[in-house]
């Protein structure tokens, strides 16, 4: 039976959409490998990997099996006072693969919640360390950390999407934007300016939160990893925790397992999500050092005050274990650089198009910034004609394909972007 698109249009509220002016919505029948199959039989090469998450593609036999086997044992059981093998195995894997100082794993149900958890940990930590005035976050402009209130409080309030909630959001110290350019070394005067603002506010600052090397939904900006070293040094000097939000960049996307490895920097708290479950289930994790955990538990509450109903969901943990096993096999270490090389060959020539402002590539991420905001419906018509699924936002057309995408399919994605850029140039 056909998907009832009329009902969808009238009753299903899609993300970031208006109910009065809904965007066109394409009915999906199935997805396998790197292809999404629409109900009318059209097959689209997926450039979005379901918003960075489906890093191994769709319909992955090992992941299907992990879910099926786990669901035959137990789909869910409350995590309070009970534990289970999929969660323990997942925590072991995460402790082993993340920076050595991160020893405690708190499982969350989405990226935004992993960020809420990180913020709450930082606030409770300073209560436990008898410095309760350290209760604000500091970050840089162009960050994006999720759509819940704590997370919105650390998203860019000027260029970001949450300005309309401003009056309700916690007060955050926003530093200047980090200039773009993977190879552009930090400029001493900007460093000095930023450090001065941190120094001035240090007695109120609990933590610095940052997306390492790539700022995602706040502008798809790629910056020099040296910035992270300075941020780490400021955190040490002024007594702040460092929260790295690797929800988008984690698990190989930027060419290293975690983006903070580009700078050899270890955070005190690390947020993971999206690709954690290979894009199969909603699951995220917040990892903390022993020092952070001790501080949190030394606070008056004595415990960490967070506990969602679906915490440690066994199906989600089982499929995440399957996904992390594929990562451990290591094919991504060749696949991601190959994608990077191809994107670096095929996207920069688009800078010659009048409609294109700039192109940037890192790992399996390709970004084409247009001169003007992209009309999503129009652009998607062109992409779909070219057999590609790409979802632009603002002036940005970006792709972050599954790591297993072959070069022919990747070329079709870059050709689709080129076709749109050419059309927009005339
Ligand atoms: N942090 C970053 C860096 C993200 O990219 C996102 C999602 N785009 C989030 C947090 C929020 O994750 P979720 O959508 O799973 O809540």
From TrEMBL:
Catalytic reaction equation(s): (8S)-8-amino-7-oxononanoate + S-adenosyl-L-methionine = S-adenosyl-4-methylsulfanyl-2-oxobutanoate + (7R,8S)-7,8-diammoniononanoate
Q: EC no.?
A: 2.6.1.62
Q: Which residues carry this modification: N6-(pyridoxal phosphate)lysine?
A: 274
- Please give the Gene Ontology molecular function terms for this protein: adenosylmethionine-8-amino-7-oxononanoate transaminase activity; pyridoxal phosphate binding
Q: Fetch the SUPFAM superfamilies from UniProt.
A: PLP-dependent transferases (SSF53383)
One example of a Gene Ontology biological process annotation: biotin biosynthetic process
Q: What is this protein called?
A: Adenosylmethionine-8-amino-7-oxononanoate aminotransferase
To which species is this protein native?
Reinekea marinisedimentorum
């Amino acid at each position: 039976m056909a998907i009832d698109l009329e009902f969808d249009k009238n009753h299903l509220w899609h993300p970031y959409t208006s109910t009065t002016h809904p965007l066109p919505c394409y009915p999906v029948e199935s997805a396998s490998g790197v292809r999404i199959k629409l109900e009318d039989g059209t097959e689209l090469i997926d450039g979005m990997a379901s918003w960075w998450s489906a890093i191994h593609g769709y319909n992955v036999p090992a992941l299907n099996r992990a879910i099926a086997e786990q669901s035959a044992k137990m789909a869910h059981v409350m995590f309070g006072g009970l534990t289970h093998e999929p969660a323990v195995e997942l925590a072991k894997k995460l402790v082993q693969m993340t920076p050595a100082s991160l020893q405690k794993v708190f499982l969350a149900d989405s990226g935004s919640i992993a960020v809420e958890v990180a913020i709450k940990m930082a606030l409770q930590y300073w209560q436990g360390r008898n410095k309760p005035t350290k209760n604000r976050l500091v970050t840089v402009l162009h960050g994006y950390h999720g759509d819940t209130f704590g997370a919105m409080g650390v998203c860019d309030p000027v260029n970001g999407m949450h300005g309309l909630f401003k009056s309700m959001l916690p007060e955050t110290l926003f530093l200047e934007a980090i200039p773009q350019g993977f190879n552009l070394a930090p400029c001493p005067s900007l460093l000095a300016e930023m450090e001065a603002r941190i120094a001035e506010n240090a007695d109120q600052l609990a933590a610095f939160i940052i997306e390492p090397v790539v700022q995602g939904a706040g502008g798809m900006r790629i910056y020099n990893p040296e910035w992270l070293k300075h941020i780490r040094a400021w955190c040490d000097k002024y007594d702040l925790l460092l929260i790295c939000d690797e929800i988008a960049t984690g698990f190989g996307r930027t060419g290293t397992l975690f983006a903070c490895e580009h700078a050899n920097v270890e955070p005190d708290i690390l947020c993971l999500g999206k690709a954690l479950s290979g894009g199969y289930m909603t699951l995220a994790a917040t990892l903390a050092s022993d020092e952070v955990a001790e501080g949190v538990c030394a606070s008056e509450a004595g415990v960490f005050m967070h506990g969602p109903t679906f915490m440690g969901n066994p199906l989600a943990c089982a499929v995440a274990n399957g996904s992390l096993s594929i990562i451990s096999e290591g094919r991504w270490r060749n696949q991601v650089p190959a994608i990077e090389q191809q994107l670096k060959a095929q996207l920069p020539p688009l800078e010659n198009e009048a409609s294109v402002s700039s192109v940037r590539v890192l790992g399996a991420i390709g970004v084409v910034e247009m001169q003007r905001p992209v009309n999503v419906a129009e652009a998607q018509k062109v992409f779909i004609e070219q057999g590609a699924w790409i979802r632009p936002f603002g002036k940005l057309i970006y792709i972050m394909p599954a790591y297993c995408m072959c070069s022919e399919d990747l070329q079709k994605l870059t050709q689709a972007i080129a076709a749109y850029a050419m059309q927009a140039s005339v």
